[in-house]
Specification:
Distance between the termini of chain B: 32 Å
Strand content of chain B: under 5%
Radius of gyration of chain A: 25 Å
Number of helices of chain A: 9
Largest sheet of chain B: none
Oligomer: heterodimer
Largest sheet of chain A: none
Shape of chain B: flat
Largest interface: A-B, 63 and 73 residues
Order of helices and strands of chain A: HHHHHHHHH
Number of strands of chain B: 0
Chain lengths: 223, 122
């Protein structure tokens, strides 16, 4: 079974039972805060490390819950000591990414309704469901997480970059624009000489703009 | 803009072709994006309305040859890519700052920059 430190309310989504699944977190990064860690060990951890751990932990939780923007904010806070401008920039980026990432398939439905019932299931059945959810998570958020990992992973920077390169190729803006341009050209080959029937709304808007232009010109003459 | 408005508001002139309308759409779209802040709100609103309606008219022309779906898909993809690029433009200063910041922490600066170059094409 996956991690046991999860604090899920009764009936909460069972996906939280899995470990990191397909998402590639940096080595040593934890998806869960560890409040039960021994006191002496925790005290020895620097405040920076604690902050880092907390941010990763929270990011992992948010990712599991599909709250990618929040996760990105957590990740952003790692580098910036919660600099609001930077966190906002990460959020914007995350939002834009989310808008272009594929929606994916629906989440696998749990075989039972509550965590208690789930724990009573045979281990094979539990594992099978956890694997299903992990795969779904990886499909849904893997690319996003890899993007973040590309910035974060200490030991596998090159791998992260190349993974990202291959996995997000289809959502790169340059590539998207190129494909869109090719599609425009293709349409233009068929429709290039077709007469455009300007609708009434377009003509009205053009009339209004022409009116504005005349007023502005007259104003400048008067001045 | 006047070059566009004059023929559009004079129906006796030859109508625009798809290609011509596309060119105007791009000009007006860029105008509304770049110079919107300098325009009075009511002019800005009318300009935005013109761009939106022109988009539909061009789509209808593409539809005449059965290519409306492709036209709208290309429009949508282009807009998404632009939004993404805008977001990364916002991200750029932060990333540079982070790269310097992260060196001391031993974080994957190289990966960050590779990714940045990859996404922005810069």
């Amino acid at each position: 079974m996956g991690s046991t430190g999860l604090r899920l309310p009764p009936g909460a989504e069972l996906e939280s039972e899995s470990d990191s699944g397909g998402m590639r977190l940096p080595p040593g990064a934890e998806l869960e805060s560890a409040p039960s860690q021994s006191g002496s060990e925790q005290q020895q951890t620097s405040s920076g490390e604690q902050f880092k751990q907390q941010a990763w932990s929270q990011a992992g939780q948010n990712l599991r819950q599909g709250q990618f923007v929040k996760a990105a904010r957590n990740i952003g806070s790692l580098f910036t000591s919660q600099n609001p401008a930077a966190v906002s920039a990460v959020s914007d980026t995350a939002g834009a990414l989310r808008s272009v990432l594929p929606q994916g398939t629906p989440r696998p439905k749990p075989p039972v309704a509550t965590m208690q019932e789930f724990q009573k299931l045979p281990k094979e059945q539990q594992d099978a469901y956890v694997q299903q959810v992990a795969k779904w998570q990886a499909d849904q958020y893997g690319t996003s997480m890899q993007l973040a990992a590309g910035f974060m992973t200490p030991g596998s920077a090159g791998n992260a970059a190349s993974d990202v390169a291959s996995s997000v190729k289809n959502v790169l803006p340059g590539a998207m624009k190129q494909r869109a341009g090719e599609l425009f050209q293709s349409v233009s080959q068929d429709a290039g000489k077709v007469k455009v029937d300007l609708g009434t709304a377009t003509q009205e808007a053009a009339d209004k703009l022409l009116g504005w232009q005349k007023m502005i010109n007259q104003g400048s003459v008067c001045e | 803009m006047n070059k566009f408005l004059q023929p559009v508001t004079k129906p006796n002139l030859a109508p625009l072709t798809y290609d011509e309308a596309r060119q105007w759409y791009q000009v007006l779209g860029n105008l509304s994006a770049d110079e919107a802040s300098k325009l009075p709100p009511s002019v800005k609103r009318d300009l935005a309305g013109l761009v939106t309606n022109l988009k539909t008219d061009i789509g209808n022309a593409a539809g005449d040859v059965g290519r409306a779906a492709d036209y709208y898909k290309a429009m949508g993809d282009f807009a998404k890519a632009s939004r993404l690029q805008d977001a990364w433009a916002t991200y750029k200063p932060w990333l540079i700052k982070t790269g310097i910041y992260a060196t001391g922490a031993g974080v994957g600066v190289k990966a960050g920059y590779s990714l940045y170059k990859l996404l922005t094409g810069e």
